[in-house]
Amino acid sequence: MAEKKVRAPKPNTPAIAILKFMPLVVFALLIIWAGLELVTAAAVSVFVALAVAIYTTGGNFNTIYRKGLAAAAGIIEVYFIVQFANVLAECFMATGVGASVINIALKLGVTARSIAIIALVITCILSVATGTSWGTFAACVPIFLWLNYLIGGNMILTVGACAGGACFGDNIGMISDTTVLSCGMQDVKIIDRVKHQLGWSLLCLVISSAVIYVFSLPLENTQGNIQAAFSSIPAETFAALAEKRPAALALLEQVSTGVPVYMVIPLVLVIGLAFTGMSTLLCLGSGMLACLVLGSIAGTCTLDQWLNDLVTAGMSSSGGSNVIMMMWVSMFGGIMNSMDAFEPLAKLVVKISKNVNQLMSWCGVVALIGNAALADEACEIATMSPILRNIVEENVETADEESAYRLRVRLATYTDALGVMGSELIPWHCYIVFFCTIATSVFPLHVFTPFDLIRGNVMSIVMVVSMLFLSFTGLDRLIPGFGLPGKDKAWLRKKEI
Known about the structure:
Layout: H1 14-32, H2 38-57, H3 61-73, H4 76-95, H5 97-106, H6 115-130, H7 133-151, H8 155-172, H9 177-186, H10 190-216, H11 226-232, H12 235-244, H13 246-257, H14 265-275, H15 280-298, H16 303-317, H17 320-338, H18 343-351, H19 356-374, H20 377-395, E1 396-398, H21 401-423, H22 430-442, H23 450-456, H24 458-473, E2 490-492
Antiparallel strand pairs: 1-2
Helix pairs in contact: 1-2, 2-17, 3-17, 4-9, 4-15, 4-16, 5-6, 5-13, 6-7, 6-8, 6-10, 7-8, 7-11, 7-13, 7-22, 8-21, 8-23, 9-20, 9-21, 10-21, 10-24, 12-13, 14-15, 17-20, 19-20, 19-21, 19-24, 20-21, 21-24
C-alpha cells in the first residue's frame, strides 16, 4: 500500500505572509463593509482561514480544524462564569441594587458645574455593580441629559461622562463579560486582574474628574431638582427604553420611586468576598442570593420572580449568538495561530522594542488596532488575546512563573481596557454607535454623533493614553500593584539595549 503523500509547507515569502493575514482582512470587511452579524462573519472567516492554513502549511482539514477546536475548547470555563455574571447583573438591575447606588449619589446635590462629574462617578459605580456598559448608559443617560438641560450644564461633557463611566465598570467589573473573557483567554484569575489595575483605574477616575471640573468651571453652581428632571422626561423616552433596553427602564422607575438604602449590600458583599480570594462562581452566587433575600424584604423581588424571571433571563442571555460568536472567533484565532499568520507582526513588534515594557506597550497598540479593525470588543479580545500571548511567550524570558503570570495579567488588562475604553474613540465601533442611538432616542433635542461622544469622553481618552504611556516609559511601576516585572525578572530573548 502506497504511503500517503504529505505536502510540504509553503516557503515564508512576502506573498505567503500577506495571504496568511487575509482571513483577518476578510473578517473586518464582512463586519464593517458588508454589515454582517458578528457570528456570521466569524463563521465565514473560519472557513477562509481553514482554506489558507491548508494551502500554506500543507496540513489537511482535520488537523487544522482540530487546532481551531482546541482553541475554542480552551475558554469553556468562561461560559459558566458568564452565566452567573449575567444572572447577577439581572438581579442588580431588577431588585434595586443599581437604583440604590444612583440615589445615594444623587443626594449629594447636582449643579450645572458638578453634573458631569456626578454622572461620571455614578455610571462608574453602577457599571461595576451591574457589569453592563450598555445597560448602565441606557439607565443613566435619560436622567442626566434632561437634568443637564434643565440646569444649563455642558451636554457634550455630560453625555461623554455617561459613556466613559459606563465603560469603566465594563473594563474592571468582576461580572463584566469582557472581564471574564479577557481573563479566561490569558488563564488568569479575575480578582488578580482587578487588583492589578485597580490603582491605575482609580487614578484615571480622579484625573478625569479633575479635567471635567476644570472644563465645567464657567458653568453655574445652582442646585438642580431631580424630580423636575424626571417629570420633564417625555413618554417617547420611556417608549424608546422599553424597546431598546427594558431592564434600564425598570431601573429608572426604581430611581424615581426610591428603594431602601440597604439594597446596596449585595454589591458590597460581592466585592468584599472577591478580595478575600473566594472563587468567582461563589462570589457571584452569594450576590444572587443576597439580592433574593434583601429584595424580598424590600418588596422588589419574590422567589418566583427571582427564579423564573431573573435567573432564567440571565441564563438565557448568556447563550444564543454571543456564546456562538465567541466560539467561532476563538476557533478563528486558533487557526490563524496554527499557521503563524501573525509572525511578521510579532517580528516587527520585537524588532522595535528595546525592553519588555516597550514590547508589552506595542502589544497594547496591536490590541487597539485589532479593536478598530473588528469594531467589536469581544471579537478583539477573543481574536487578539492568543496572538499577543504568543508574542510575549515566544520572545520574553522570565525568572519565575509569578513574573510570567504577571505579564499575562497585563495582557488581559490590555485586551479588555483597549477593547472597551478604546471602543469609545473609534467612530464606527458598535459601542459608540449604540450609545449615539440611545442618547438621541431618549433626548431628541439633539442628534448625537460619534464625534460628540469622543470629544466629551474624557475618561476613555485618559485611560487609553495613560495605559500606553505608562507601560512604554516604565512609569507604571509608580502605581501600586500596576508595574510590570523588573529587568531582573523579565527580559527579551534578544539582548536588551
